[in-house]
Amino acid sequence: MSFRFLSPAALRTTGYAGVAALVAAVAILPFFPSPSVTYAMGLILQIMLFVYLAQAWNIAGGFAGLFSLGHSAFFGLGAYSYAIGVAKYGLDPTICFLIGSVLAAGLGVVTAVISTRLSGMFFAMVTLGLNEILLNLASQLTWLTNGDAGTYLRKQFTVSAGTAYYLFLALCIAIFVLAALVRHSKLGTMCVAVKENEAFARALGVNPAPWKIAAVVISAIATAIGGGFFAMYQGIVMPTMVFTFSISIKMLIVTMIGGVGTLWGPLVGAFLVLFDELVRASLGATFGGVSLIAYGAILVFSALFLPKGIMEAVRRHLLDRSARHG
Amino acid sequence: MLMSIRNLDVRLGRLDVIRDVNLDVEEGRITVIVGANGAGKSTLLRTVAGLNKVARGSILFKGKEIANLPAHRIAAMGISMVPEGRHLFREMTVAENLEMGGYLCRGKPGAMAANMERVFDLFPVLKEHRHRKAKTFSGGQQQMITIGRGLMSDPQLLIVDELSLGLAPKVISEILEKIVLLNRQGMSIYLVEQNVKQALKIAHQGYVLDNGSITIRGSAENLLADPEVQRTYLGL
Amino acid sequence: MTFDVFATLLLSGIFTGALYGLFASGLTFQLGSLSIANFGYGSWLILAMYTTYFALQVWGVPLVAVIVVLPLAYFAAGYLIRNILLRQETLAVQILTTLGIAMIVDGVIIMAYSPAPRTLGIVEPLFYITPGIHVGQLRFLAFVVAAVALIAFQVFLRRSYLGKMIRAVVEERETAQLMGINSDRVLGIAFGLSFVLIAIAAMLMIHLFPVTTSAGAVYQLMSFLIATIAGLGNMRGAFLAGIAIGVLNAFLLYFAASYATVVLFTVFVVVLVLFSNRTAGIKHI
Hints:
Chain A is mainly α. Chain A has a single domain, classed as Orthogonal Bundle (ABC transporter involved in vitamin B12 uptake, BtuC), CATH 1.10.3470. In chain A, 79% of the residues lie in helices and 1% in strands. In chain A, α2 packs across α12 (245-259) and α7 (161-184) runs antiparallel to α10 (208-234). The two termini of chain A are 16 Å apart. Chain B is of the alpha/beta class. A six-stranded mixed β-sheet of chain B has the order 6-7-8-3-9-10, sandwiched between helices. A four-stranded antiparallel β-sheet of chain B has the order 2-1-4-5, with helices on one face. Chain C is mainly alpha-helical. Chain C is globular, with a radius of gyration of 19 Å. Chain C has a two-stranded antiparallel ribbon. The chains are: A mainly alpha, B alpha/beta, C mainly alpha. The A-C interface holds A 67, 69, 114, 117-122, 124-126, 128-130, 132-133, 136-137, 139-140, 245, 249, 256, 286-304, 307 and C 37, 39, 85, 88, 90-93, 95-97, 99-112, 114, 217-218, 220-221, 224, 228, 258-259, 261-262, 265-266, 268-269, 272-273, 276-277, 280.
């Protein structure tokens, strides 16, 4: 086997080509209608949603190192902003997205400021707490949210599965572009520097706070927008659907397993979602426990053996190779 | 030979800290390693005690290979280390610290009490205050507690890492006297010391560690007389 | 609010709070002394509560058997988890590992017990101090058991040789090894013991409250709150802080039942932000 095929440069080109092929395949799938295609589309939609959310989380958690366990708070804010806005107050959808973004940004700033005061573990706990507060508020403020019954969206405010499909594809592409831009911008470099060695960065006169805040705000707004489109697609928003820890943890796991802080990590980790959906579909809800157990086992396994995710392991492997055969 | 170290290499992270060290510790003698700060003396002791990994080489104790054995197994074989910086269980009393030191003799009835009496004979001031918390004692007394704790397991080889750190000269002399006393009672002692002159005065064998390698070796007398040693470490 | 109502609420809060404190003391021990951030702590409580329920109601196991077997099983679980899965000290690894374990536990609960809420439905006999002030007998009994359990644990840590070994290893892990002590095994035992506290708390709680699968997160956050207020590793403080939270919760439920959780969690966030700097790194038991 010639080593030239496995050189980092070749691999990168192959990687890009692969992604392009993947996007193309996803895009043309709806043109071959059949029951199995419809089923596959539903699956892919779910995957795209979580790839999108994972990448959004990655901007704060991966690039800026803010380990948040409560990102579903932003998701829920966006979802409810849209739902309440159009259903209850008849606002224009764009305004609703704007409101959701502002709310999320506000919460994001609060979260980021808190993070500068707290160490990792306490910060993670606080994010959980904030999410629980919003969950309970959504349940209790029935005059606003219709409580646990949820806010129902009439037909004209929702989108069909087909439209949602392309919508989420576009969102995925957009967020990867956004993540790439952030990563290669000054913000990204600053964040990585601070994450790698905060003391050193401070010694160089860099104040980490504004950069962290910026990263979190971008992540929050992106997540909220995702929530808004989710509401559009679901047609109903209930507290336990959006302010739920399982969404937060999925965003996290997908990124961590794929490779936290890397650009393509969330995409690689998406296969985990695929696996989960397949398990759940084939075994049904009563065996929902199996998918939880599988998720948990994968999480434990990757925490112990692949602490930085698959991408990192791959990258290190490539580095070793090029060092040996370079 | 009680302990033999051959061709020892120790790495901390990516740094080579100990390079190809060969040394012997004779039974019933006081062996001393001296050297400048950062030469690797403590690393060497910690490796013998099992707290660092051996990259290459062997450490034979009573004929058995102990390199890379876990520290608690090495302790069970009869090596007791008194660590640098004392590392007492500060919230525990003297008696409790000694009890911890005597973990290995718990199985033998009466051994714990007997060993504690021996420690109190050596350091009477500890007996008086044995129910006070360790953190309330002076530096010198804390050093005594640490040494006492190391003796509780009835070891065959006592390793002492930098006992003079932060102590007044008079206190250092006092404690070194006790070390000599222990040795006369038959204890083999392996010492690492910054205070070269006092260390070599009580020792039988000496080694100079410089930048991870042994540069000078010989009897303590010879080392004291060695012009190199005198110039570099004794300021003469 | 009459004095009678006030007193009843206060007593009820104290006794219930003692249970929270017992449960939280396990976490504070894990956090403070063992430096393990267990983000799946709540799930283990839920598992124990469900198991106790099923043992008593469905499988017909006598209570005595449960009291003996469950804590032993939990000790074993704690020991194995610490020594097989939690040897690495990195925070991220710990959080993810404990989260993963919690998910497995949650999955097991769903599969073995089905996710329906369960309650032993015990009508609690009341003890009337005065005609207007009453105390639940079960609650009071639970309070006594919790207090005894914690005191026993403290005495164990302070007086017994194994307890001292645990304290020694917690303070100076390497140095303890120099004395022949197998620090890993001791830490495993310590972790196992903290799991026993979970089992005891669960067995008491299932007699007083229903259990649902979603309650894990609430108990988890509550324990963190209590642990933070008390100071990491301070078990006595955790008991008292638990009581404080119990009282707060009792009054909140009375005044604004539906918003009680929101207020509690807001308190949680505020306390964490303001006080975690003070408590971080305190390692006394």
